Write the structure tokens for this entry.
Amino acid sequence: MKIEYKNIVLRDMTEKDIDDDIRWNTVETDWGNWDAPWESLPDLQTFDPEAYRKKELGKLAEPKDEIRWGFEIDTAEGKHIGALSSYMMNENFEWTPLKNAKPGEKLFRAVGIDICESCFCGKGLGTNALAAFINYLLENGVAEIFTQTWSGNIRMIKCAEKLGFEECRRKKDLRLVNGKHYDGLTFRLDKEKFYNIYNK
């Protein structure tokens, strides 16, 4: 599957992407300072390239979900620069794997993004990629969309607000990053605002 929007392309992962992912987990690792660094930075220290390659090859061999949970991000020129993902949250805005959901439990879709090639950060590519992903999910019946970040990730906050997300929950001093406490933030998409931006 491939989605083109402005200056980016969203596509399914291929085997050749694994080498980029390994480089992003061993050499080009600045993204880890922004994407949940309380998880990412410890994971980077214990990253095992061969185990990762084996795991990803196994995932590539599996049938793809009809409604994708994420995409790889390319520039319009074909440069692989990062990835989008999504996950489910419960009514307390806590990550909840579908297999662990309780009968009748209401779940919500949250989206996330990593621009791992640092030289492409700050150019609006991530905003366009996230916009294209959100539109894809809405077109495929996802009724409500959220995103989560921490108060120190100013770029992600600005990106979310630019796309029509509005803060709906703040947990004070939830995250500890480099010895400093930051708030945990959850944003809910205002679809009317989003479409006004997306269709420009």
Q: What stands out?
A: The helical segments are 17-24, 37-45, 49-60, 125-139, 154-162, 191-198.
